[in-house]
């Protein structure tokens, strides 16, 4: 009769910490951004703790993890609004009228609209749809 060989971990942890390649992290994060997907469900499917996936999402938001290009049509675009640096002249941007385009609707703001004003309009649009 043959005996089965069993390997037991000796000392320390019984579990190995896994290193996930950035490509795998990016694919998992991209799956969480699909409509109807949840972090918990995607993490369970890949055998990863949900808190790891959440931290990977944070890395992606900060630009430290590059996500793959979407396969289908893009459904949203990020808008980054920040303070204007002092290198431009005061009246250089005075004649510029920011436009926000959503589908067939075009919203033209007043010339020289502040970043806060633009952000508030975008936020109102996002919450109304």
Provide a brief overview of the structure.
This protein has 129 residues and is mainly alpha-helical. 35% of the residues lie in helices and 6% in strands.
| Integer tally of domains | 2
Strand-pairing-aware structural class: mainly alpha
Helix count, DSSP H or I runs of 4 or more residues: 4
DSSP strand content: 5-15%
How do the strands of the widest beta sheet line up side by side? Answer: 1-2
Please give the alpha-carbon distance between the first and last residues: 70 Å
- Poorly predicted ranges (pLDDT <50, ≥5 residues)? none
Reported for the largest beta sheet, the result is: 2 strands, antiparallel
Tertiary shape:
elongated
Task: Please provide a written account of the structure.
- With 129 residues, the protein is mostly helical.
- It has two domains: 22-61; 79-129, no CATH class.
- The chain is built from four helices and two strands, in the order H-H-H-E-E-H.
- The protein has helices at residues 22-32, 39-46, 50-61, 115-128, and strands at 99-102, 105-108.
- A hairpin with a 2-residue loop joins strand 1 (99-102) and strand 2.
- The model has no long low-confidence stretch (mean pLDDT 77).
Outline the fold blueprint.
Elements: H1 22-32, H2 39-46, H3 50-61, E1 99-102, E2 105-108, H4 115-128
Antiparallel strand pairs: 1-2
Task: Give short descriptive properties of this protein.
35% helix; 129 residues; 2 domains; 6% strand
